[in-house]
Inverse folding.
């Protein structure tokens, strides 16, 4: 796609001391900044769910507590899946910078599989709890657990769909101004999800097991 | 298949039936009119699929007027009920209907009139004031509007199909939980607010990037109009506060739909947590609403005093202080919920602090007028109405900020009088001021000044008559949301006075409404002959023709000081670019409309447990997004020659 | 009108490098391993361990924000960074405020029927 390049004439000659307040007015810079603001709102959304979890974590209403429910191996495995996937996502971007469309798609595929692995582990855990009678209906603690971790899982699932669409776009259109921009924005989202997960495994699982 | 829909959803009391019939007939009448005038294609091409911020702004304002009509009718019903329902009489509304009415009133006014007015003005004015051709994301702009409109349609649907919430405009649990409000009412409320909230958040992101990145040459932050500054602070508040609302509504939704226990009375839930979270959003929300109104007055006062705004820097700092402080006061909404004196005292003091920067702003406006040449056209009249009513209400706010006082008057009519003084005195009068001020800019003709003045006097006096007695009633023990009381309370005479005030306001509203139509019909006699600057104003939007061409500025301006148009008039503006260039603008698309309507269907499906509808709508929205975000962006090009021709045609003497 | 960038110019706007991802990866593994081992081995008192793993989480977050999200490397006026810090301040206000308020309320109002 031919880039849209529009040149200002006589800007600097006419009045060298008056400048554009922001020299990065291109689509890429605007898109990244705008998406970043969306991520900040998502941070606050998760923060609200987190603080609710903390407030309600001991309201077990006769049901199991965090210590009774959580083990260490599962969240560790989930953490590894997500951490590896965040790095492979970075690798996909690095390949895209080099213009290597097929490698980029391949790394996205790896990222996708790791993401699926994470989701499978999480669904398994949820299912186990539900089968034991410890669903979200059991207590305020369990409600806030399922809501917080489930919201993160929903974000990951949305990311997987987005990733698939991105892989298809890159495969079909190649690395263009538009697909590169969208890949960058997707990678911001995917990295953000690992960032949130740090706090989930720390506050929900690790501190839960310690109680 | 039909979830919990049944023919029962059409069962209402006679008054609601009348309203529904009126609504349906109006809708049909509108459809008939458009068909008769053969304007469907025009409507689709020029308005529904537009990504032009000016048209989107007008659509916001039109929607606001439609929603205002509904919210105001609700208010009238409350006043009539409270004037009549004494002793043996039970008024005209059943208890349940009354609950729906005050819940709908608050929800409509805050989420639709308040937020809608803000986005309407941001769309119309911000790109023009910063010397830009468009907002950062024109498509997202359309999506935000249609989410807002879709949510508004859902609000109207709640009147005709089933019932609205009876739990107030904030729906506190446990009352709003599934156990105590099992019917569709609270669910309507949840999805209406959630969808509108997402639209607002996306819109705020859009305008924030617009202001940060798309200002014209030379417009550094300290040279921006104060309307842009106040809007900037409001947008940032939206971005930081609305996620709390989104999350809290999600938790209430999970309690209602999936038997979770966030806020339930049993299961370990904590209803107080809802109150805490909803006000952590709710307090910034009221500043989100009022800051743009302050900004509007900061534009009007200098223009109608022919004098630059006094204390620009202190205005900016006051705005920043107010925005920051608005995050540390929220507990004052629930002093009486039982927190210890230390906690209450902290938030009491922080609340008192907010009065200081607000006072700075009031004095700055007054000092602007001092030794200015003051013109008393209607925008300035609305400023005076604001000055008196908002300041009085603000002072009662300082009274309320003291926990011991609040313990006496919390949730009484004293509180109602206070916050209506803020939202009517501040936000609504700001809206009226901005509407009368900027109307000629976007239409090329004036509203009837005479009718404006009559409307102003009705609103101003009507407001005082309708709300001052409420302070007294609050002290006399009258709580809010009462649908009946005893003669022995002695409240009846005051309620009658208040009802008279409401009628005076109605007259004002009717004059405005009819005046709008009259002005349109009579426009040939009210044309703006000044090539776009009828008020002899100071900012960039008045430097282009009225109504503005689609590209706003034929040549992007260069500025180097505050009030750049005033600089041009005084001959001290910096040299401007002279060359016309090709202009690229985004093309229209129907996808924003589809997303809005699909969101409405999603909400409707969730309300009635028709989950297949919600899933299908959700998939549809996803499909729209994928299609849009996989396609190459098309642009339309207006060549330099076309720009030149348009400009010359517009500047031909009228 | 905005000056649009070519693909080459856009690529320069993205600040990822192989180095940043590898450093970020190894540091994250380190902090994660530290936190999990601490809880596994239960070396210290419960309170100490909680502070340690929270600190570890915060440090890992800084690592990921810097090396994966590239915050701080954007061109001036660095809006991404400024708004990130502002968001963190608001987050702390809401979180700390809520915890203070709710613990205060729960002490005075909730009957502690079931814990």
């Amino acid at each position: 796609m031919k880039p849209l390049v529009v040149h200002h004439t006589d800007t600097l000659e006419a009045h060298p001391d008056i400048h554009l307040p922001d020299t990065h007015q291109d689509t890429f810079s605007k898109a990244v900044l705008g998406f970043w603001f969306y991520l900040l709102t998502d941070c606050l959304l998760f923060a609200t769910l987190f603080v609710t979890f903390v407030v309600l974590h001991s309201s077990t209403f006769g049901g199991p507590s965090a210590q009774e429910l959580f083990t260490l191996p599962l969240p560790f495995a989930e953490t590894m899946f997500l951490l590896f996937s965040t790095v492979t996502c970075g690798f996909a971007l690095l390949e895209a910078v080099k213009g290597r469309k097929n490698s980029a798609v391949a790394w996205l595929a790896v990222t996708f599989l790791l993401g699926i692995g994470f989701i499978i582990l999480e669904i398994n855990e949820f299912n186990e709890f539900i089968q034991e009678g410890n669903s979200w209906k059991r207590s305020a603690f369990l409600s806030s657990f399922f809501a917080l971790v489930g919201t993160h899982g929903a974000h990951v699932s949305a990311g997987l769909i987005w990733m698939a669409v991105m892989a298809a776009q890159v495969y079909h259109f190649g690395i263009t101004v538009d697909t590169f921009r969208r890949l960058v924005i997707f990678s911001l989202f995917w990295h953000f999800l690992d960032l949130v997960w740090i706090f989930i495994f720390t506050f929900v699982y690790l501190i839960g097991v310690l109680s | 298949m039909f979830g919990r829909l049944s023919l029962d959803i059409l069962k209402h009391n006679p008054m609601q039936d009348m309203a529904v019939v009126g609504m349906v007939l109006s809708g049909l009448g509108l459809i008939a009119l458009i068909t008769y005038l053969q304007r469907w294609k025009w409507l689709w091409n020029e308005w529904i699929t537009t990504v032009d911020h000016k048209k989107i702004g007008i659509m916001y304002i039109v929607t606001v007027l439609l929603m205002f009509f509904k919210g105001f009718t609700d208010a009238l019903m409350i006043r009539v009920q409270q004037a009549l329902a004494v002793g043996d009489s039970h008024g005209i509304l059943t208890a349940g209907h009354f609950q729906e009415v005050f819940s709908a009133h608050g929800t409509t006014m805050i989420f639709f009139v308040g937020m809608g007015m803000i986005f309407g003005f941001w769309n119309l004015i911000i790109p023009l004031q910063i010397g830009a051709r468009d907002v950062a994301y024109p498509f997202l702009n359309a999506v935000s509007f249609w989410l807002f409109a879709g949510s508004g349609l859902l609000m109207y649907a709640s009147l005709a199909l089933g019932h609205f919430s009876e739990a107030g405009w904030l729906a506190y649990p446990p009352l709003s939980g599934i156990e105590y409000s099992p019917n569709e009412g609270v669910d309507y409320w949840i999805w209406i607010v959630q969808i509108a909230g997402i639209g607002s958040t996306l819109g705020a992101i859009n305008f924030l990037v617009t202001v940060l990145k798309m200002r014209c040459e030379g417009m550094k932050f300290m040279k921006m109009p104060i309307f842009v500054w106040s809007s900037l602070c409001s947008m940032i508040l939206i971005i930081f506060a609305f996620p709390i609302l989104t999350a809290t509504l999600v938790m209430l939704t999970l309690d209602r739909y999936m038997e979770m226990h966030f806020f339930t009375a049993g299961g370990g839930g904590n209803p107080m947590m809802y109150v805490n979270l909803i006000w952590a959003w709710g307090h910034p929300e009221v500043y989100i609403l009022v800051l743009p109104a302050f900004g509007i007055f900061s534009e009007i006062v200098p223009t109608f005093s022919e004098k630059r705004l006094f204390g620009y820097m202190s205005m900016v700092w006051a705005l920043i202080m107010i925005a920051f402080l608005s995050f540390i006061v929220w507990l004052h909404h629930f002093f009486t919920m039982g927190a210890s004196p230390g906690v209450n005292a902290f938030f009491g003091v922080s609340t008192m602090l907010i009065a200081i920067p607000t006072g700075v702003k009031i004095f700055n406006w007054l000092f602007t007028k001092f030794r200015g040449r003051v013109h008393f056209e209607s925008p300035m009249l609305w400023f005076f109405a604001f000055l008196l009513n908002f300041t009085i209400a603000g002072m009662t706010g300082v009274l309320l900020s003291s926990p011991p006082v609040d313990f006496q008057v919390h949730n009484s009519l004293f509180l109602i009088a206070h916050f209506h003084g803020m939202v009517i005195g501040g936000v609504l009068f700001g809206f009226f001021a901005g509407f009368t001020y900027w109307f000629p800019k976007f239409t090329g003709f004036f509203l009837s000044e005479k009718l404006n003045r009559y409307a102003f006097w009705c609103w101003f006096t009507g407001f005082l008559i309708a709300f001052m007695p409420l302070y007294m009633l609050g002290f006399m023990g009258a709580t809010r949301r009462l649908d009946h009381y005893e003669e022995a309370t002695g409240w009846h005479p005051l309620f009658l006075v208040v009802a008279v005030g409401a009628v005076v306001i109605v007259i004002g509203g009717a004059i405005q409404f009819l005046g709008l139509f009259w002005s349109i019909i009579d426009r040939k006699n009210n044309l703006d002959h000044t090539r776009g600057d009828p008020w002899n104003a100071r900012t960039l939007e008045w430097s282009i023709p009225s109504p503005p061409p689609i590209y706003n500025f034929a040549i992007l301006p260069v500025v180097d000081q505050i009030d750049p148009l005033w600089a041009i008039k005084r001959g001290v503006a910096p040299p401007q670019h002279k060359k016309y260039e090709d202009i690229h603008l985004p093309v229209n698309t129907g996808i924003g409309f589809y997303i809005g309507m699909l969101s409405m269907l999603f909400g409707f499906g969730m309300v009635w447990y028709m989950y297949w509808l919600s899933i299908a709508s959700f998939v549809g929205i996803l499909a729209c997004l994928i299609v849009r975000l996989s396609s190459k962006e098309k642009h339309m090009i207006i060549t330099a020659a076309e720009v030149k021709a348009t400009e010359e045609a517009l500047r031909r003497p009228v | 009108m905005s000056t649009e960038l070519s693909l080459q110019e856009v690529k320069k706007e993205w600040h990822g490098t192989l180095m940043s991802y590898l450093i970020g990866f190894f540091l994250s593994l380190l902090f994660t391993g530290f936190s999990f081992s601490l809880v596994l081995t239960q070396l210290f008192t419960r309170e100490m361990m909680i502070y340690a793993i929270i600190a570890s989480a915060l440090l890992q977050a800084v690592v990921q924000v810097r090396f994966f999200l590239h915050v701080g490397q954007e061109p001036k006026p660095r809006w991404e960074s400024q708004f990130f810090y502002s968001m963190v301040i608001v987050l702390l206000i809401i979180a700390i405020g809520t915890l203070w308020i709710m613990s205060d309320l729960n002490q005075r109002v909730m009957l502690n029927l079931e814990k």
